[in-house]
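Bumping my old thread because nobody answered last time. Still need a sequence for this structure:
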């Protein structure tokens, strides 16, 4: 029989799972999913701010369906492959991008965290991916270029009713060295974002009795808001109303293919059109020679019950096959496996927005970095488990929606 003895501290210490109550842990650094960053971010930002990021239009059916579409994807992996080394890169406009996702444009990023768009752009440079600055950003075209000179920068463009303003924005983006214009075409009017209305969210946030009471719960957020430069759109003066009211007052509802043709003639860089939700529209744009189209329903924030981009992807891929136009997809991707699934169904790149916004709400630049690390790790893990070493090895039989047959 084994002789019993009292355990020694040196034997117990390596297996003890608890930590001193006086030690501090970095919850952002320890997050292992985007969902966990979302939870952390929700606890650090006022409800109206979180809901602005998390919410969608109407009954939020479009966003819910887009999210669920990724849940319905099924992978058919190969085994007995050497996957000790994987290459996660893709080609965008003939240039290498280190990961298969792009940081998409998001408005009013400094509302989520005072570090704002420069924090996101800097992380994009670290990970070797493009970042898209929104027209409704809270950092100017020039300031973003100065803050993140190494970042591959795109500029997302809304067309104003006032034509002089749209021309000026295009000229400024060209002068600041932006690689691409991303023309957004699904915002002829603003969507009904019920959460924003219920929360009384205005741009910028107003100091009402309700918001002042909120300060007691989120003193750090409010302290950063009140001690940094005024929170406003960098490319226009704020209206004091909701984002939907801003869109209705400022955006041009008469946008047509003539505006796309004008940009092709006057913009020296690459031209991307975002907000495409129809096979025929995608084919029309590809035939017109745009450099990329983005299948997107604006994250479900415009037309509720709109088409699910991921479900539309295979049909559009077939329709524009043989053209030089690249195909991107936006909306609903919150994990690296989602990104791989989008690539497998035919996308050349997947745009992510909410994923990094949850990160910036959770921890500023460090939170965005953690979001990128999570997505990168999940992409690599998914590739290895699927038995591929590069994304061009994905074949149509490896990614499909459940119920479409078996291999």
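Sorry it took so long. Here it is:
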């Amino acid at each position: 029989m084994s002789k019993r003895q009292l355990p020694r501290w040196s034997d117990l210490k390596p297996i003890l799972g608890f930590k001193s109550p006086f030690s501090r842990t970095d919850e952002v650094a320890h997050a292992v999913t985007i969902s966990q960053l979302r939870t952390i971010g929700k606890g650090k930002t006022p409800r109206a701010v979180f809901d602005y990021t998390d919410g969608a239009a109407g009954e939020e059916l479009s966003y819910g369906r887009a999210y669920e579409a990724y849940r319905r994807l099924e992978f058919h992996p190969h085994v007995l492959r050497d996957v000790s080394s994987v290459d996660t890169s893709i080609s965008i406009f003939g240039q290498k991008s280190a990961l298969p996702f792009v940081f998409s444009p998001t408005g009013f990023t400094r509302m989520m965290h005072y570090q704002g768009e420069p924090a996101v752009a800097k992380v994009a440079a670290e990970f070797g991916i493009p970042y898209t600055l929104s027209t409704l950003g809270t950092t100017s075209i020039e300031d973003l270029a100065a803050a993140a000179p190494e970042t591959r920068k795109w500029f997302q463009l809304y067309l104003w009713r006032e034509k002089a303003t749209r021309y000026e924005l295009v000229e400024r983006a060209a002068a600041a060295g932006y690689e691409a214009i991303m023309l957004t075409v699904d915002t002829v009017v603003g969507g009904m974002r019920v959460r924003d209305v219920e929360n009384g969210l205005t741009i910028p946030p107003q100091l009402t009795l309700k918001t002042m009471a909120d300060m007691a719960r989120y003193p750090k957020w409010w302290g950063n808001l009140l001690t940094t430069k005024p929170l406003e759109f960098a490319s226009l003066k704020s209206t004091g109303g909701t984002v939907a009211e801003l869109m209705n007052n400022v955006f041009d509802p008469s946008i047509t293919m003539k505006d796309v043709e004008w940009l092709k003639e006057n913009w020296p860089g690459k031209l991307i059109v975002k907000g495409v939700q129809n096979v025929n529209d995608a084919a029309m744009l590809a035939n017109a020679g745009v450099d990329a189209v983005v299948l997107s329903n604006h994250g479900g924030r415009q037309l509720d019950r709109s088409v699910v981009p991921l479900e539309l992807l295979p049909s559009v891929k077939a329709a524009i096959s043989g053209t030089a136009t690249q195909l991107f997809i936006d909306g609903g991707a919150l994990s690296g496996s989602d990104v791989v699934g989008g690539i497998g169904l035919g996308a050349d790149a997947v745009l992510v927005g909410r994923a990094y916004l949850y990160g910036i709400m959770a921890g500023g630049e460090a939170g965005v970095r953690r979001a990128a690390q999570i997505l990168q790790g999940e992409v690599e893990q998914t590739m290895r488990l699927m038995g591929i070493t590069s994304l061009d090895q994905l074949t149509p039989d490896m990614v499909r929606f459940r119920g479409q047959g078996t291999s």
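The first strand starts at residue 73 and ends at 75. Let me know if any region looks off to you.
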